[in-house]
């Protein structure tokens, strides 16, 4: 839908392992990518560049002390902590993040699994600046996941593709 309007989308697909697999998908849309900007370089970059630059800053404003301490609010390079797959399209980039690929993330998931409905988790996504000319860092987007009910997740119904 966004690409039909000439907009560019960054799509984060956070894949949660378990007896039932879940995906939490977040869409961030911008009108344009500025030529030469760090975000433009990220979108055009290869996996190595993207893995070395994509950051997430987590926060747990509501949750037990042990969960808040485990998650913390320390910046994390997603591509170094988790396996990421980048799918580049003409008007989008999808970033598939396999949370199950990280032993640290799996440990945190083990803590939150039983109390996920009581948690509020914020995640800020941005591209890391490595040089002063890349500053200031700018947010791609922020999402709040609040009192998640995994059992209410549904499989989306996809519209069949029509041939032109």
TrEMBL record:
Superkingdom of origin organism: Eukaryota
Name of the protein in its database record: Protein ENHANCED DISEASE RESISTANCE 2 C-terminal domain-containing protein
InterPro entries according to UniProt: EDR2-like (IPR045096), EDR2_C (IPR009769)
Chain ranges of the Protein ENHANCED DISEASE RESISTANCE 2 C-terminal domain: 5-148
Organism this protein belongs to: Citrus unshiu (Satsuma mandarin)
PANTHER family recorded: ENHANCED DISEASE RESISTANCE-RELATED, PROTEIN ENHANCED DISEASE RESISTANCE 2-LIKE
Pfam families: EDR2_C
């Amino acid at each position: 839908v966004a690409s039909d309007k000439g907009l560019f989308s960054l799509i984060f697909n956070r894949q949660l392992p378990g007896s039932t697999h879940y995906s939490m998908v977040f869409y961030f849309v911008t009108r344009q990518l500025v030529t030469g900007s760090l975000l433009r370089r990220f979108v055009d970059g290869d996996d190595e560049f993207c893995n070395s630059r994509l950051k997430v800053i987590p926060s747990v404003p509501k949750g037990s002390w042990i969960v808040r301490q485990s998650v913390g609010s320390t910046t994390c390079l997603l591509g170094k902590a988790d396996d990421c797959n980048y799918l580049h399209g003409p008007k989008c980039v999808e970033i598939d993040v396999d949370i199950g690929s990280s032993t640290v993330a799996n440990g945190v998931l083990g803590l939150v699994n039983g109390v996920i409905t009581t948690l509020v988790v914020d995640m800020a996504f941005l591209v890391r600046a490595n040089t002063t000319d890349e500053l200031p860092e700018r947010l791609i987007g922020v999402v709040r996941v609040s009192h998640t009910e995994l059992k209410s997740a549904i499989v989306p119904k996809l519209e069949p593709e029509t041939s032109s």
